[in-house]
Write the structure tokens for this entry.
Amino acid sequence: MSALGVSAATSVVVILWCVAALIGVAVCAILAKGRAAATAFVYTVSFVVTAVATAIALSHLLEAPASPAATVLPAGLAWTGAHFRIDALAAFFLVVVNLGGAAASLYGLGYGRHETAPERVLPFYPAFLAGMNLVVIAADAFTFLLSWEFMSLASWALVVAHHHVAENIRAGTIYLLMASFGTLALLLAFGLLAGAEGTYVFSAIAERGAAPPVAALVLALVLIGTGSKAGLVPLHVWLPLAHPAAPNHVSALMSGVMTKVAVYGFIRIVFDLLGPPVWWWSMLVLGLAGITAVLGVLYALMQHDLKRLLAYHTVENIGIIFIGLGLALAFEANGLAVAAALAFTAALFHVLNHSVFKSLLFFGSGAVLSATGERDMEHLGGLIHRMPQTAFAFLVGSAAISALPPLNGFVSEWLTFQAILLSPALPQWGLRLLIPAVGAMLALSAALAAACFVKAFGVSFLGRPRSRAAARAREVDGFSIAAMLGLAALCVAGGVLPGVVMDALGPVARDLVGGQLAVRAPDAWLPIVPIAESRSSYNGLVIFALVAGAVLFAAAAIRIFGTGAARRSPAWDCGFPDPSPATQYSATSFAQPIRRVFGGMIFAAREQVEMPRPGEMRPARLRVALRDPVWEMLYAPIGMAVSRAADRLNPLQFLTIRRYLGLVFFALLSVLMVLALWP
Amino acid sequence: MIRELAPFGAQMLLVLLLAPLLQGITVRVKARLLRRRGPPLIQPYRDLARLLRKEVVLAENASWLFRAAPYLIFALSWVAASLVPTFAIDLPLGRSADLIAIVALLATARFFLALAGLDVGTSFGGIGSSREVMIASLAEPAMIMIIFSLALVAGSTALSTISVFAMSPEVGLRVSLGLALVGLIMVAIAENARIPVDNPATHLELTMVHEAMVLEYSGRHLALIEAAAALKLLLYMSLLACIFAPWGIADAEADWTAWAIGGGAYVAKLAAGCVALAVFETAIAKMRVFRVPEFLGVALMLGLLATLLRLVSRSL
């Protein structure tokens, strides 16, 4: 029995009831037709339900029962039914989903009041939460795909909630296309996994495994299917368009949580269903992940739209998570169970961390948006004076995502580095050469992320206001601030007490990769020691205490030996202060050195200066031209090919009935031929 | 417990007290090389004491972050510097952070320094911050690659273990360690804003980076930032000393005499480092800002090469 009085076996039933409650709320929201009370009702109930689900999932994870909780409902495919199951992996991801959901619902209680079209958001919001929960507990292919598609469609409806903006419609269309494409790939993957006998239940698939060539094909399809949802380069193009288009608490859910559900899908299929991995799979995953991490952050650095910048950072962090997963595959394939557990734990830790700080940052950008009406950083500035609590929470999130100690983002990247340093134990030369290179990419992306968040926080919150809207901003409501500060506290807690999180992740790693890290010694100082103390150790609590002590020491020393006197005066600026806020560094100019170093190669960045002739009164102009290599090299040609093919096939629309019948006949004949010749 | 923590506390005090001396020696040797007399060795201490007693002049729109940042920067740099073994290895709490975490602590300090540069909203602060993060975005990966190569040779990222390994006979002369040494020196020069990357002696030059960021600081805030910069210089020198010149360092079961020998050796190593730095800075000219990426690119390549060499052969 758990602390909540719910036995392990019934936790799946409770989660199913939570899902039912969320869908019930969605129906109520449709009936309410955007009445004023509906907003408070929907978010309150969503908050309560997700909080309960978090508690249930957490107790299941910590209790770590030997057998997973499972149930079968008489729905879904007639001969199998709908299977649901909560094992350690599902419990962990349920925590991630519902924790993010609870925070977003709390935030929505305040932020949702500014919504201009609540009837387009309220019904889909709880449905989206329900869909994500269902994906995680689904235990057969049919239920999984159905829930996956339900989640996609609900989030699509939220992306196009503000359908009057042409940009959002374009984002929605591209998202729908990519989501359908991803689901198609997953459908084919499950088809291959099910084989000729058609075993769709996960436990049966896992027992059966897959033959090596089929397994490789499944891996490729799963990378496409889950990678397109998670935002792996080059399948990320929809993400920076769609995530910012939704209302902010939904952006937080899409970036912080839905991408993690995609990671769950990848882990479930590749680590659980596919059987023992082959070493070269990890090369594929690691290569893609390294490129994703670096390209994601470089794209982010080039942005000056705050929400789009955050969305590109999601791409980067997905890269970091997949680096951990790729390492886990490499170690598992070579039977190095403890190293695999370390890499896997690092990836899962980063999943949790990213869901926390990315939600926090999207909430912060939402607070800025509702206070100023601006997403463009070039029109912000000086908000720290007018929105101190939001600024503080955003600062904590920025430091956490930049992998700075003593916060949580650092711990997961540190664990990933420790896993990378175990690579000489691998026998394959390809991996031994690739993994240090991926390590360099990880280090580069961490350093660039710090640069990017100096820019995001510095330009939006510091300096002088660049527009009247920014100068007149007001602090946002209490619910929003509570949600942000709560997540900021989690960022600190995860960084100061990482051992607690790692111990909780132990059963997941044991189930999936067969190894387990040494459980933290009951030491009063709580250090984390991945392999051995002589190798490496980190103690967030001691570091935090030392830094706090050093700050106090400095303050005390100044009190005794110095003076606390201070006086306000105009800025010094080397004797040439300019009153115009336009003379400050902007987001574009801040990124200029980095654009010059990296942008020329990757984005073909060009800067054009237009100087007026002497005597002319018009201002000089600097134009920056960037090109998106992925879009131009991959998507634009595909789009061209599709429209050309459509032009070619256009005449088929204008045939006589005789010819149509002929076409139908030939189509039927060829299908029957294929069936007849199929071995 | 107090007894256990005393050596670590001594190390914290030692680095704090020694840090300004490093700047004193460097400035003095540089002046001598230019046939000037130069300020006395204790001048940096006097400067800090004077700054502490002065009133702070805050820009009108400086925020709480601007006032809090110097304390954080100082505390982070101090903690990072005292986690590097100085006179002894394996001090209690010394294993709270490995080399990666120490570098990350410095990155946190830099994060707040760059934000402080943007806080007042002046163009000088912006130019400094923007260039600082550009330099960091190359210096940090280079540093991580150097750490990788060291960790692959020594089998650990914990500095105490690396130090023990460096003293053992199996270390020998290795190409990868040589490359790592050169790379680490290059990163150290860039991180400490020394010539040829940045010039610590000037405030009014368009190519400056570090000094532009701290332009608006005065009084006790400036004192804390100057102290943090001195601690960072000391950190990199202790790092070079404990990895590449660990002679004399006291081991885990040492008594007071061994600690005293370790302390003496440590001060001697620091003094030698300062003289070398002064000679190097006098002999070389500052480079343009956009040559810095090439400089650090070389460091990154050296780190990568050292790592790959180690993977190709165990003896290289």
In short: The longest strand of chain B covers residues 56-59. Residues 2-312 of chain B form one domain. Chain B has a mean pLDDT of 90.
